[in-house]
Amino acid sequence: MLWVWLVMLQFTLHNQRRPESIIEDNINKPWRPLPSGRISVKGANYLLFVTYLAVSVLSFQLGVITHFVVFTGLVCWYNDLGGSDRSGLFRNFLNASGYACLFSASLRICLDPSGESRIGDRATSWTLIMVLVIFTTIHAQEFRDEAGDKARRRQNIITSIGHSRARLLLVTFMGFWCAFIPSWLGLTFKGAFVTLALGLWTAALTIWGMVKRTEKLDKKMYLVWSCWL
């Protein structure tokens, strides 16, 4: 979907253009355009401006301008105002809130582009569930980025409660959501098999990381978590 692609481009440009982000990416993701020198900060800012124009017009046409405005505020808070660096819980909250905008806007565009009718209660409940899933498990991404986070002195769940506790917290919530969501959706074991398998795989890799941790393992865990999500 073009709208989702554009707002994610907007977020990515905000996220990667700041000096501290470039320092982090030089360690964690040197292949990205800015640390690898494929684009300058000035070029990224220009592209961001063009993206703002494009997504503003598209949001107005699709009837999701409110979602876009709220999402933009969260993006600026997360990146430009340091919201992602000061607290692990607040970082997760901003992540979850941003996803809430993406989920609800996508539902609006797909189910009711005219904006004349109300999105159903079950769809709203599903959006809320997914927001809670993000809030409680998004720190799966932080284990692979720990070196860069330390370089920019970012506060996250790992620095707040410790490495092992952060892993146990992730495993606990993965187990809860793997049990709750299929039940809420009314899925049979066969229908939920792929989700359960990916969830258990994520949990297993997370636990194994407590025994024998490597950057490669943490990257694999995050990839499996992303597929589960």
UniProtKB/TrEMBL annotation:
Cellular compartments per GO CC: membrane
CDD domains to which the protein is assigned, alphabetical: PT_UbiA_3
Annotated transmembrane regions: 46-77, 164-185, 191-211
Topology within the bilayer: Multi-pass membrane protein
Localization: Membrane
Keyword tags: Membrane, Transmembrane, Transmembrane helix
UniProt GO molecular function: transferase activity, transferring alkyl or aryl (other than methyl) groups
InterPro entries, A to Z: Prenyltransferase_related, UbiA_prenyltransferase, UbiA_sf
The protein, known as: UbiA prenyltransferase
Species annotation: Ophiobolus disseminans
